[in-house]
Amino acid sequence: MKIEFFKHNIGPKEISLVTKTLKSTFLSTGPQTSEFEKKFSKFLNVKNTIGVSSWTMGSLISLKCLGIKEKDEIITTPLTFVATTNTIIQSGATPIFVDVEEKTGNINANLIESKITKKTKAIFIVHLYGQMCDIKKIRKIADKYGLYLIEDCAHCIEGEREKIKPGQISDLAIFSFYATKNITSGEGGAIVCKNDYLAEKIRLFRYHGIQKYSSNKNEFQHWDLEEIGFKCNMNDIQASMLIPQIDSINKNLEKREKIFMNYAYALKNIIGVSFFEKLPATKHARHIFTIRVDKQIRDRLVKFMQDNGVGVTVNYRIVTDLNYYKKKFNSSSFPIAKKIGDSTLTLPFYPSLKTKEQNYVIKTLIKGIKNFSC
Ligand SMILES: Cc1ncc(COP(=O)(O)O)c(C=O)c1O
């Protein structure tokens, strides 16, 4: 049996809207992008959404618009995808890593304050695997020290913590619509932002920094430029893929929740497999299904699963284990993140995954663990 690691949910509604857009005059940032932005803001109950070409570009322009520059420090987690830490470095700042909680893999809020210095400008949290960090506590720390709070929501559109949704109490929240995300346009992203002035600046920065001036409505409007931005606006083809998917977010979460239950039930008594915890007062976005196995067998198990037709991956090795970061940081300073990074394995997990496919994944995993554990 061959089981893909991921299958998207693009169906007739998305295809029909994309077709309509392709037949229209606007292909770049136009009415569909505005419609997507409105609908996404409504879904999250937030003020402003700005559609961009990817999470990565969204993060980079966000950091630029916050005025982050060389010698600044940004507190973050080492257990994330490299986009989080790469964009911090690309903004000129230095990432200051804080270890994570063993039960969730999220940044340990209790360790943040000890890492704050005069150079700290922001706390950049990642809601790993779909469970939100302790955002209320981290917001309080950010306020106490006058720091920006930024959320990496690449794994978390659907989550909640103590009734707070992504984007509701941070300064900026950044979303990804990359090919394997819960809603996707192949590539794409969005920034959610409470502050209207900052939202407007980000809007300019996604399109070179170009500004329209309208001092006199009877005169021709030349555009002008005050600051140099980037080119990373969302286009209407991406937006047309995303708009119908917003309506299916909750239904697809229910389907993933069922798959989660099936996997969790089947694996709960298997020696050598452990799970992250879902904390009380949280709604989990169930973005990916990541387990932990013995680090001695993890890589062999990944290969075994792949050789047996099951698409699996590792989310993530701690970033400070990667060559570029290794030269500057020492993974042993983040023992929990290191332990998790050495032992994670992510199984196929998407709404269209059939019961017999789930059962094959479980059977293959158990067989692999038995093979390598003796
Ligand atoms: C946690 C996290 N942050 C950031 C990104 C980057 O997203 P994008 O590919 O849209 O730039 C990803 C993508 O996989 C991610 O998983």
Describe the fold and architecture.
The protein is α/β, with parallel strands linked by helices. The two termini are 26 Å apart. It has helices at 12-22, 31-44, 55-65, 82-90, 135-145, 196-205, 236-247, 249-267, 298-307, 323-326, 335-341, 355-373; strands at residues 48-52, 73-76, 94-97, 120-126, 148-152, 160-161, 172-176, 189-193, 210-212, 223-225, 273-275, 282-283, 289-293, 344-347. Helix 2 (31-44) runs parallel beside helix 7 (236-247). Pyridoxal-5'-phosphate binds at residues 54-56, 80-81, 83-84, 126, 152, 154-155, 176, 178, 189.
Largest sheet: 7 strands, mixed
Gross morphology:
globular
CATH architectural label of the largest domain: 3-Layer(aba) Sandwich
| Lateral arrangement of strands in the main beta sheet | 1-8-7-5-4-2-3
Estimated radius of gyration = 21 Å
Roughly what is the average pLDDT, rounded to an integer? 97
The end-to-end span amounts to 26 Å
Order of SSEs: HHEHEHEEHEEEEHEEHHEEEHHHEH
Bound molecules: pyridoxal-5'-phosphate
List the domain count as a whole number.
2
Unreliably modeled segments: none
CATH superfamily of the largest domain: Type I PLP-dependent aspartate aminotransferase-like (Major domain)
Task: Please report the first level of CATH classification, the CATH class of the largest domain.
Answer: Alpha Beta
Structural class: alpha/beta
Helix content: 25-40%
Strand content: 15-25%
Entry summary:
This protein folds into two domains: 12-247, Type I PLP-dependent aspartate aminotransferase-like (Major domain) (Aspartate Aminotransferase, domain 2); 249-373, Aspartate Aminotransferase, domain 1, CATH 3.90.1150.
